[in-house]
Amino acid sequence: MAIITGESDAQLALRAARSGAEVVRALYGGPLARFEKQAGDFATEADLAAEEAVLGVLRAARPGDAVTGEESGHTGAAAAHRRWLVDPLCGTLNYDARTMLVGVNVALSVRGSVTAAATADPFSGEVFWTDGERARVRDGDLDRELTPSPGSALVDVNLDPPFPNAPGFRAVTLLADPEFVRRFRPRVVSTTLAVAWVAAGRRAAYVTDGDLRDSVHFAAGIALCRAAGCVVTDLHGRPPHSGAGGLIAAADQETHAALVAMVRSQSGAG
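Predicted structure:
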């Protein structure tokens, strides 16, 4: 496993995400063993192989860091100040159904703050990445700054369980809100690759229920959106990562305010 001297955490996150994406791409379309989890969830051998590739890169470069992997769980000291959060194949159901909408997420949490992150698209070859200050997309060897935009009016809504804020908030009910129908057009890609798309200006916003504390699924996308200048809170306008409050990541303040108002109206808090 190659070790690159002087490599920053952000560059390492990018390289690790790319390594996982290569595995995901290579195994796509072939017969895959499935490993059942709980509540109808499952992993495939591609999930496991991609995570092994990502962890191999991280451990070779930062052997003292702790890691939390979607498939392998926690390794390293429980109280470690530096912990990598790895989701090797976000969109497993899409992938298993031969749908090319997945992402590979790698994020570094230092004392609870994500300081470097990357989300790789195995099929476009793009890697969205941040050093915590700026957000960029690498395509081949070229980097471009990410620029959020509400112009598409496309809002990606995650309809997958769990739903800790129900019945006060249900994503499916949000889609029927008259104001939502008037202002936005829903999209459901069922992968957190769509969170990176908010940072890139390809989505106006992303909305999900759930508990986002130390989330291997959302840490990278939230970091990308924050670095790009998006408005990122939980469903009620509070800081994300603070509990089971879900997520609204919006390209601008106006879009964010509109979605928070719809959530409050749905819960009767408005």
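Summary: DSSP finds eight helices and 15 strands in the chain.
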